[in-house]
Each structure stands twice: as C-alpha cells, then as structure tokens.
Amino acid sequence: MQPSIIDLIPGDDGYSDLKRINIVTGLTNRSSNITSYDDLKKLGNSVQIFQSDIYYNLPNPADGQEMFGYYKGVQFRYFNFGINTAGNATAPIYHVNSDNGTLISAILSTVPGLSNYSGIWTVYDITAEDKAPITSFSQVSNLEQVYSGVVANCPVSLTSFPRPSAKSSAKGPRQ
Question: Residue 41, SS3?
Fold first, then answer.
C-alpha cells in the first residue's frame, strides 16, 4: 500500500490536524514510490485524484512529541504536547443544542494566544430555541448553562482569524 502523502506540517501556514482524504487511482505495483504531490502530478493522466468527503484527525507531531511507553509489557506510542500552559485549569466550551438535542454549534471561550487558553475544556450544554446561526457566546449568554460532566482534551489547531496578543484575555470564566 502506498504511504500517505501530506502537504503541510506543524508550523506551515494552513496546517491543520484534520486531513481531507484524497483517493488516488491508477497506481500500479510498478509505479515508483510516490513521496510528494509533485510526484503524482508527474504521472499525468495515468492517475486520477478524487477528493472524498472523509476527514481524519491525524496530527503530525513535531520531532520529540511522539513518546514511547509500555502497557502490560507491550510498547505503545503516544503524543506528548507538553505541559498544559494553563496548569490544571480548564476553559469552558459551550455546546449549543436545539430543542431536540441536535448540536447546533460549539462556542469556544478562548483561543491559543490568549492568557486564559487551555486545550482542556469543561463542556457546558446550552439549549437554544433560535435556529439562526449561533457563532458567539453573546448570542446565548442569557441561557442556562448546564455542566455536562465532560472534560475534553481538544486543543485548538486552527483558527480563521489572527491570533490575539498574549496580553489579551477572552471573556468567560476560568474553571
């Protein structure tokens, strides 16, 4: 099987842990080992690339972030992204649900670069009757926030806006 090819690594503009899977057809056992997108382009019309609707959470850790350990005598690998800069603190994330329990959106209380950022989140549920797009906490701040009993390890890997300065602080309680 042909190993995966990725175009961006951590630190590159546009990098994300989420990868959209592209399916390549036309490769044969006689095809040379493909190690880049440029290699695929060189094959021209002998291969076809289909963009799927499948996304995988495939972080590419930087050197030194992949660690080895043992479980009952068997070696395993895991990622070590370092100490949470917020210590044991979590940040609230709000799951906004419709009346029937369908998740409408997830509202973050902070992002990387803010002094109160934590990649570990305390999940609160909010039920909203309004079906309008909900994109900020101010739209639902007056609604009841119910602790879900869940603490999630979900570091933010990409935002679509410039990162705030480290001196800034997002509104919202620290947990």
Answer: helix
